[in-house]
Design goal:
The chain has two helices and four strands; from the N terminus they run αββββα. The strands form two sheets. A two-stranded antiparallel ribbon has the order 1-2. By secondary structure, the chain is of the alpha+beta class. The longest helix has 12 residues. A hairpin with a 2-residue loop joins strand 3 and strand 4. The protein has a domain of 34 residues. The structure holds zinc ion.
């Protein structure tokens, strides 16, 4: 098995780790409902992309869930 010839200093270890931090996720405002969404993606809240309705967000929801979603959309 390979064995490192020299000990890595704490400074060298930490310098390497300075590149490991996660970048914040880039979010944009949905032009239709105004919520924060990922760019170049259909809005999961209102189903719109490029000012067109792409997916029906009410499809497959029960009456109760539909009512709740409508209430949410009003905000
Ligand atoms: Zn939206």
């Amino acid at each position: 098995m390979a064995l490192p010839a020299r000990h890595h200093s704490r400074s060298r270890v930490n310098k390497g780790r300075s590149h490991l931090a996660l970048k914040p996720v880039n979010l944009i405002k949905c032009p239709h409902c105004g919520r924060k969404i990922l760019p170049h993606r259909v809005c999961p809240y209102c189903g719109y992309y490029k000012n067109q309705e792409i997916i029906d967000v009410y499809k497959g929801l029960t009456k109760k869930e539909k009512k709740q979603k409508e209430k949410e959309m009003e905000k």
